[in-house]
Design a protein that fits this description.
This protein has 195 residues and is mainly alpha-helical. Helices cover 52% and strands 8% of the residues. It has a single domain, classed as Orthogonal Bundle (Jann2411-like fold), CATH 1.10.3300. A hairpin with a 5-residue loop joins strand 1 and strand 2. Helix 1 crosses helix 3 and helix 5 packs across helix 6.
Length: 195
């Protein structure tokens, strides 16, 4: 199981700038949250829980909850980008945000340093609340909302937060979509040179 979790974590991307946007990116280029194990890997890798937190309760209900919230956040964000209010999605994200986030405490690590740890195992509603609140914080903060961008990569639906100097970032990831664009541009130039 550990190797499957490592593979799932490797395939997941966290380059959109906000955890709520990272959740919406789990549909591209294919469904990344296709099992409870992959959701557990995403929750751990995203930083929703402190490193090393055991996630033994992740099940199909968690998977359905995260996918549902992902859909509502995507509708809400796209609605803001396209100036088409998505009020039903807003109502659902507001409702999910009402749950209390998980309570954390500081504990001593083996080396004597302090680290975060949950008081109790995290519950799905608590973690969904954290993601929903992140979406609400993003969309109600005018400078952050103004930094939302749609990736310019071919067929890439990912929305990201442009925090680059000069606000000129064009792709969700320079290594993924940016590299594809550079390769395509090179091939076009080479084809023109041959012609």
């Amino acid at each position: 199981m550990a190797s499957g979790m490592a593979t799932a974590s490797y395939e997941l991307r966290f380059d959109s700038g906000r955890i709520c946007l990272d959740l919406t990116a789990t549909t591209h280029p294919e469904e990344r949250l296709d099992s409870a194990a992959h959701l557990g890997a995403w929750v751990s890798a995203s930083g929703l829980v402190p490193a090393g937190t055991p996630l033994t309760a992740v099940d199909t209900a968690w998977l359905l909850g995260f996918r549902e919230l992902r859909g509502h956040i995507a509708q809400l964000v796209r609605g803001e980008l396209d100036a088409r209010p998505a009020d039903s999605a807003l109502a659902r994200v507001n409702a999910v945000a009402l749950a209390a986030p998980p309570a954390l405490r500081a504990v001593r690590a083996d080396d004597g340093s302090l680290r975060r740890a949950p008081h109790t195992p995290p519950h799905c509603a608590e973690l969904l609340s954290v993601v929903a609140r992140d979406a609400l914080d993003l969309l109600t903060d005018p400078p952050a909302r103004a930094s939302l961008r749609q990736c310019e990569g071919d067929n890439c639906p990912i929305v990201y937060l442009d925090t680059s100097r000069g606000r000129r970032r064009r792709w969700c990831s320079s290594e993924v979509c940016g590299n594809r664009e550079r390769v395509a541009r090179h091939r076009r130039r080479a084809a023109l040179a041959r012609a």
